[in-house]
Amino acid sequence: MSLQTLIKNVQELGQEEGEGKLRDAIQILEQERKLMEEVPDLQLADKTKRLRQACFKVNYKKRKLMAGMPAMISKSKSAGFSGDNPAARVETNFKQWSI
């Protein structure tokens, strides 16, 4: 996932957050993207890596749900699925990242 895609995902998933936090997070990601263009060997910050991973996980789970896999649904019900909300985890990671 590119930083540009991560910025787009943060915009989509972070709309519930305050406008200021969202703007600050996007600005930080934009700065990091520009630095990566200037210095290609630069490593992403740990917080950015965690945010990227959380966004990827949410998008993956969305794709799985959209695919409508009835076998997965029936298995999760029989296994005692706890109603895990991946978007809530991304929101938590986003809050930690923007501090």
General description of the model:
- With 99 residues, the chain is mainly alpha-helical.
- The chain has one domain (3-80, 87-97).
- It has five helices and no strands.
- Helix 1 runs antiparallel to helix 2 (19-38) and helix 3 runs antiparallel to helix 5.
Task: Give me some keywords for this one.
5 helices; RKD-like; single chain; mainly alpha
Number of domains: 1
Structural class of the secondary structure composition? mainly alpha
The dominant shape is: globular
Strand content: under 5%
In sequence order, what are the helices and strands, one letter per element? Answer: HHHHH
The helix fraction, in percent, is over 70%
The number of helical runs is 5
User: How many extended strands?
Assistant: 0
Biggest sheet, in brief? none
Compute the separation of the termini in Å.
Answer: 23 Å
Strand and helix map with partners:
Elements (H helix, E strand, L loop, with lengths): L2 H11 L5 H20 L7 H21 L3 H9 L7 H12 L2
Helix pairs in contact: 1-2, 3-5
